[in-house]
Amino acid sequence: MAITIGVPTLRCTLILLNMMCFLSGLSLAIVGAVMHTKLETITSLTHRDNLLTSQSLMAMGLGVIIFAVAFFGFCGAAKHSYCMTVTYVMLTMVLIVIQIVVAVLLFAGTDHSRHDYLEWFDEYFDHGISVAKRSSVVDPIIDYLQSTYECCGKISFLDWGNKLPDSCCADGRTGPNCVPFEEGCERMLEGYIRQTGKIIGWILMWLTVFEFVALTLACCLANGIKNRVDALYFA
User: Distance (Å, rounded) from C-alpha 30 to C-alpha 52?
Assistant: First the structure.
């Protein structure tokens, strides 16, 4: 009787946990895709590869894998399948180890990538502003950074002096009516890189906790299913 009552409870709980996990996996893939889109455009313009683009691809890949494994566990619990549940347990064990390793790499590697990226950024922006002041031609990469991240200048819009490029203007108002973005691009980009890397890392750690609970419940469910089958055929 205990098994009869316990198995449905385990199934419902495991289904709920896996629904949360595959929604979180989908969210992780979306965050990685957004991050990659922004950084990939800069990389393609500068022809300068960066560890951050690899991290965004890794987040997308892990998000898809987490989604697939969680959906597999959801189906195993919903269909009351011993084979699918045991397979889900093994896949989740491997996935948890991978997630912990990736999260540690993200937390440790984000600062290194940020310093490397911002070091290049400072040099490039100083040179671009200097050239623009002499020739009135704004570098397309700087234009892209300012319009995408809604920032102006390296430190602030004052870096441009009296001639603000159109990409600095908020609400599309250019020329004499230009209202520049208040924040400088260095601070904006640094905050974006720092926050995105940390967000992906914390999502992975949060998922690891839920997956560990789901793993424990899946083991209990598989054992309960096996006991019920044994009781049915060998009674």
Answer: 16
